[in-house]
């Protein structure tokens, strides 16, 4: 059964397309006078020791370690800019876990706190440094899955539990909230000493979910208020420019609940960026974050086999589908960026953007969806109004800080659309088109002189980004 499926996939090289005798047309309107969110970018993670696979632990040669990282982060290839690092909570070196900077927990919250930096961070430092080589403006998101065990009700990094000191916490030797806040800030300090700025700091990963088997910690919005009111001032005093995240819930709805309760508890100002994952629910509408930005900080299909396709079966790990997920988040929920789960992993599953197999690597169509947005809508760009008059052509638009404009268009039809793009409030004289479909990976297709309107063809089942300068 399984081998038949593989044969079927291999022979059906691409989803169908056709050229109808009538020409289908669409009109897109882009209006720079209507502005929305500022973009942060796209990214991925090397948490749980997976960064070590990107840096040779399963046989990837040093040259390919560089190449794979360059493919992800180079402005002219993958275009990513976010690295999400796991602030480890494991007291010893354990395969598949991330080392804690506090290997020995003191008996009480008064200390002593003997922080240790191993100059490695379970290969996440090397991932961050190498990404910085190819993109000097990496946005580092340092995020803890759990506090060290001694600071929690369960006494261990696994099994969920609460931070000792928040409402509802029992079985505690004291109030460990300040100790946990200091610990998170110390991690940022170690990166600063390596010359790397952490842009965003998070104390939680999926606090609505208790997986038992790996580092995890629970919290609702009220309990988050009890901790964030300690963390926020301590972190800002140490690093005035740092942003504080809340709270990496498993889904957008779960995140909304936490944000709502945080506000009910009086903690609406104790975070800067609403961070959420897309596993258990989709964003669908604006976040209740009081105007603060929101960022999708982790997602992958996670259950399927490796899937590198752009658009073959319509399965949700395909690149074309990811282009639409991002479109919907950016347009319907004002989401500022999108972070895939792992960057590069030695695997036969579909959790990573790049699959490693010893010294070989394979790039997924998902990365080309990220690249079609983020090579052109760079960090700091501002989304502007863009709409299409037909349901199966999706458009968004972004103005970069230097005035250039990116217009990613997705054609979900199986036939081409002759498209008129009308511009309002944009001064540009040239449009360059980059196509991604089953045969093209963000390939430059041509350049044309433009006025306030221009005509283009958008190929079937493709994403075509128009870069205006
Ligand atoms: C296009 O027109 C030709 C000639 O009339 C016809 O044979 C063909 O089936 C048409 N194709 C489509 C997709 O309608
Ligand atoms: C970092 O630590 C891992 C083990 O966790 C090791 O395999 C790797 O070689 C180290 N990297 C560096 C750059 O020292
Ligand atoms: C209470 O804490 C102790 C020590 O940290 C731990 O061994 C025990 O499992 C905890 N009990 C519960 C119910 O979590
Ligand atoms: C904070 O950011 C500003 C503007 O980017 C920069 O000039 C300043 O040096 C930063 N301050 C610190 C403490 O990093
Ligand atoms: C690396 O991937 C291959 C399959 O692609 C698998 O057989 C091997 O066990 C993996 N090795 C590790 C250490 O994960
Ligand atoms: C596009 O990338 C895919 C992997 O995502 C690769 O298999 C294919 O050869 C590339 N095609 C071109 C034209 O570069
Ligand atoms: C403007 O910024 C974009 C995105 O970073 C870059 O690709 C482009 O070269 C810049 N253009 C000019 C004229 O500086």
Can you offer a commentary on this structure?
Strands 1, 12, 13, 14, 15, 16, 17, 18, 19 and 20 form a ten-stranded mixed β-sheet that branches. The chain has an eight-stranded parallel β-barrel with strand order 2-3-4-5-6-7-8-9, surrounded by seven helices. Helices cover 23% and strands 28% of the residues. α5 packs across α6 and α8 runs parallel beside α9. A hairpin with a 6-residue loop joins β17 and β18. It is globular, with a radius of gyration of 23 Å. With 469 residues, the chain is of the alpha/beta class. The structure holds 2-acetamido-2-deoxy-beta-D-glucopyranose (7 copies). The site of one 2-acetamido-2-deoxy-beta-D-glucopyranose has 4 residues, from loops. Belongs to the glycosyl hydrolase 30 family. GO terms for molecular function: glucosylceramidase activity. This is Glycoside hydrolase family 30 protein. InterPro entries: GH, GH30_C, Glyco_hydro_30, Glyco_hydro_30_TIM-barrel, Glyco_hydro_b. Keywords: Glycosidase, Hydrolase, Signal.
Task: Choose one word for the global shape.
Answer: globular
Would you count the extended β strands for me?
A: 20
SS content category: alpha/beta
Measured as a percent range, the helix fraction is 10-25%
Bound molecules: 2-acetamido-2-deoxy-beta-D-glucopyranose
Which oligomerization state do the chains in this entry correspond to?
Answer: single chain
Nearest-angstrom radius of gyration? 23 Å
Largest sheet: 10 strands, mixed
How many helix segments?
A: 9
Question: What is the residue-averaged pLDDT?
Answer: 96
List SSEs in N-to-C order.
Answer: HEEHHEHEHEHEHEEHEEEHEEEEEEEEE
Low-confidence stretches: 1-12
Instruction: For the record, give the distance between the C-alpha atoms at the N and C termini, rounded to a whole number.
Output: 52 Å
Question: Strand share of the residues?
Answer: 25-35%
Keywords: Glycosidase, Hydrolase, Signal
Organism: Cladophialophora chaetospira
GO cellular component, one term: membrane
Family: Belongs to the glycosyl hydrolase 30 family.
């Amino acid at each position: 059964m399984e081998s038949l499926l593989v044969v079927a996939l291999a022979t059906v090289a691409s989803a169908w397309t056709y050229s109808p005798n009538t020409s289908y047309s669409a009109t897109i309107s882009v209006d720079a006078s209507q502005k929305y969110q500022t973009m942060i970018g796209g990214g991925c993670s090397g948490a749980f020791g997976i960064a070590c696979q990107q840096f040779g632990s399963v046989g990837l040669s040093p040259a390919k370690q560089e190449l794979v990282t360059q493919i992800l982060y180079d402005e002219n290839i993958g275009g990513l800019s976010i690295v999400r690092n796991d602030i480890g909570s494991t007291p010893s070196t354990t395969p598949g876990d991330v080392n804690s900077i506090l290997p020995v927990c003191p008996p009480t919250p008064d200390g002593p706190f003997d922080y240790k930096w191993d100059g490695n961070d379970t290969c996440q430092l090397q991932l961050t440094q190498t990404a910085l080589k190819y993109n000097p403006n990496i946005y580092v998101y340092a995020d803890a899955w759990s506090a060290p065990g001694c600071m929690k009700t369960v006494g261990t990094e696994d099994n969920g539990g609460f931070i000792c000191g928040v409402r509802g916490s029992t079985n505690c030797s004291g109030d460990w909230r300040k100790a946990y806040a200091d610990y998170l800030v110390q991690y940022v300090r170690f990166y600063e000493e390596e010359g790397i700025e952490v842009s965003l700091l998070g104390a939680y990963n999926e606090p609505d979910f208790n997986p038992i088997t790996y580092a995890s910690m629970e919290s609702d919005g009220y309990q988050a208020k009890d901790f964030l009111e300690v963390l926020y001032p301590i972190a800002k005093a140490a690093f005035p420019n740092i942003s504080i995240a809340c709270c990496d819930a498993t889904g957008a709805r779960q995140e909304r609940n936490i944000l709502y309760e945080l506000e009910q508890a009086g903690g609406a100002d104790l975070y800067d960026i609403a961070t959420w994952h897309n596993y258990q629910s989709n964003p669908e509408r604006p976040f209740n974050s009081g105007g603060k930005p929101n960022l999708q900080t982790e997602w992958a299909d996670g259950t399927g086999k490796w899937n590198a396709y752009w658009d073959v079966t319509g399965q949700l790990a395909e690149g074309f589908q990811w282009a639409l997920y991002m479109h919907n988040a950016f347009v319907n929920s004002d989401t500022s960026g999108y972070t895939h789960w792992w960057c590069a992993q030695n695997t036969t599953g579909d959790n990573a953007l790049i699959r490693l197999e010893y010294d070989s690597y394979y790039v997924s169509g998902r990365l080309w969806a990220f690249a079609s947005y983020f090579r052109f809508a760079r960090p700091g760009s501002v989304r502007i109004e863009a709409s299409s008059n037909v349901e199966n052509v999706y458009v968004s638009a972004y103005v970069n800080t230097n005035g250039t404009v990116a217009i990613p268009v997705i054609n979900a039809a199986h036939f081409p659309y002759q498209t008129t793009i009308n511009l309002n409030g944009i001064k540009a004289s040239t449009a360059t088109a980059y196509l991604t479909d089953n045969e093209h990976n963000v390939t430059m297709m041509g350049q044309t002189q433009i006025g306030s309107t221009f005509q283009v063809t958008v190929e079937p089942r493709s994403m075509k980004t128009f870069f205006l300068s």
